[in-house]
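Hey,
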Amino acid sequence: MAMEIKVPVAKPPWSKLGRELESCVRKAIFDFSLFDQGIEKIAIALSGGKDSLGLLFLLHALRGRGFPKFDLVGIHVDGEFTCGAGVDARYLGQICQELGVELVLCHSTQKLETLECYRCSRERRSLIFEAAKKAGATTVAFGHHRDDSAQTLLLNLFQKAEFAANLPKVHMHDYGVTIIRPLIYVTEQSLREFAQLYGFARISCQCPVGQNSKRKTVDLLLQEIEKHFPHVRGNMARAGLLYGSDKAAKP
């Protein structure tokens, strides 16, 4: 008889940190109207890392508490080479089962010889969007946080001469889904501490390309700038929300 493995699940009553994170998520939902009226199901892009699992636990906790009791479905993309925490899909399946959340598995076709961030990202998103629609969800939540937004702002500025960060809500007209980012006010450090506190911290992305990506370069650059300007990430993310281009939201 196989021994049952207890998986980490974060649920209220929260610690002080958990309450702070839920408050940030609620504020983002209200500030940017992330939930459409009468929303019934939300898909979560579930890599299994601290960000996506943190998002799963927080959205699951606030259902029916000031919001409709919407359903959740996790969409996980696995494969030989794919972004994310490299976790076993069975581990995610146990977490979702514990929460009563459906889990849908998709498979990436990426191979080492053709691995490239843009191509991989496009494939992953297409798989996630199609799986979400098939599951009856046209709203897809991603675990992008405040620090991701600061990185995106610099990447767009340096590479495309565009002042544009992650938008909290984007309707993807070509795919027929809407992306939302409920963690847009949440820092990566607080998510890291949340994952450690509730026992779901795992090794981060081990993609051989991702470790040498332009995004990684920008993150290292921000670490250097932080030595002189400690609030640079928060200030850049805020500037992106206040003054950044919304071109990505237009058809």
